[in-house]
């Protein structure tokens, strides 16, 4: 069966391996990262398909703003180095991503670029 478009999305609760938060599934999409620390695990080839056997820790490296989608979290896999982006879920009514955590990633990133100022 060709499944380039209709791949199976597994949207299930998980426990964050970094901060041990119980993460509920999104009703409005597929969340693959922790709303508290924004880390994720490299288990998907496409979002939600659980087809990757890497299993490395996906570390939030950067936040980018997409005109349509809003904040996107850029993850880098600690094991294989793959770069992935995932939409931030700041408007999730049950378990929104923490704005503080988003800002923290942004801050670290700008420190990294500009060096320490102020
Ligand atoms: Zn976490
Ligand atoms: Zn990986």
TrEMBL record:
- Where does the record place the RNHCP domain? 12-94
What is the name of the protein in this document? Answer: RNHCP domain-containing protein
